[in-house]
Structures are given as C-alpha cells and as structure tokens.
Amino acid sequence: MKTILLAACLTLVAAQAQAISRYDPTRLSCGKVQSTIARQGAVILRYQSKRVPGLPLYDRYVQSQQFCTMGEVRTRAYVPSADTKSCPVYNCKRPDNEHFRHRFIRRH
Fold it and tell me: How many CA atoms lie within 13 A of 27 on its CB side?
C-alpha cells in the first residue's frame, strides 16, 4: 500500500512539473509571445544568449502577480523575439531588500 501511495505522489509531482509549456521566443513574434503568456498564465521561455555563444538562457514568465509565489513580485523583463530584440514580458523575482531599505531610509 505504501508503494502505491508513493508512486501516486511521484506521478502527481512529475505531472505538475511537466504542466508548464516551453517556447523559444525567437521563433515567435513579440505579440505571439505576449498572447501565449496571457493565454497560459505562465510559460518557460528558452533562448540563446547573444553575449555568450552557446549559453542557453531561460526563465518562467507570467501573466499576472497571481502566478508568483509568496514573497515574489512581478517585474518587467525583456526577451528577444522574431520581430524585435526586446519584447516586454513579466517574470517573478524576490524583491531586493537592500534597494527597498535604501529607499525607506532616504524618505525618513
């Protein structure tokens, strides 16, 4: 019984890990990249670095704050697309506490 339960849990975890779609934004127009993110809520975009040949870059890009985990904020990011070098999208990042602390100190 324990084996069946363990197998079911592992299958569920694997299914959740595979649930997010992956795309190469350089094969899509900027509008298509943005509409895909809006439609799916969150996607992984993977593309080659322009500065370091052969280095793959990837991140999870989201439609709204609701797709970020607790403690993260939605921030603007830019990815290359088929029709532009900097397509505006959003990803989730942990806030830079040092930045927020300096802003607070300067105000008060």
Answer: 7
